[in-house]
Design goal:
The chain is α/β, with parallel strands linked by helices. It is built from 9 helices and 6 strands. Helix 1 packs across helix 4, helix 3 crosses helix 4 (67-85) and helix 7 (150-157) crosses helix 8 (173-182). The protein binds 6-O-phosphono-beta-D-glucopyranose and magnesium ion. The site of 6-O-phosphono-beta-D-glucopyranose has 17 residues, from helix 1 and helix 3.
Length: 222
Amino acid sequence: QVKGFLFDLDGVIANTSVYHAKAWHQLADELGVTWTEDLGNQLKGVGRMDSLNLILKYGGKENDYTEDEKIKYAEEKNDNYLKLLDTLDKSEILPGMEDFIKDLAAHHYLISLASSSKNSPLVLEKLGLAQYFDEKVDPATLKHGKPDPEIYTRAAEVLNLKPEECIGLEDASAGVTSINGSGAISVGIGDPKVLHEADINFNDTSEVTLDNIKKEMDKKKF
Ligand code: BG6
Ligand code: MG
């Protein structure tokens, strides 16, 4: 029986994955690494330093910089990202997600946040959605980022639930892998070709409702 929902933030609740991509694209240009859609998809859901390392590897530049230089570049990306957040407000909540979260709370499901982003508390505040979350995982306390299952295992644990009692929602391939590894049911939101590992797929956040999830779970015999 499902008792809890584990949420990714960027690209699931808010349109902020676009801002992350913009800021990484800007840095990739500066580093002389060609930006592609495939690289963009690989970076989704992945933590700050892991993302920088993926970009450098993608461009064959993994040995070109010292750890200190890499930290400086990661900070530069974050500064650019924060500038893009300046004007962030409720209008950047993805279609249907505010109603969905309110509906979950009204039905007494437990809700936790499983975002890799250290900026996630700020984003949730700006969106006016922080009060709906019973618990949050602090990504700074994790040993391994997505696609490792640790963040989703913890997101269930902080609700005092087993992962098997939870549904995780993701827009990123690395995130779906993480949910699946934890044992929770995975919902992939976005291109089903990219998110083919998910237990349940929706093309768009507007399709994500309790009813639709229940229907899909019945179909898949959960
Ligand atoms: C994830 C985003 O939620 O958080 C990634 O999908 C981002 O794009 C990661 O790299 C880490 O975020 P931050 O804000 O801590 O750099
Ligand atoms: Mg995401």
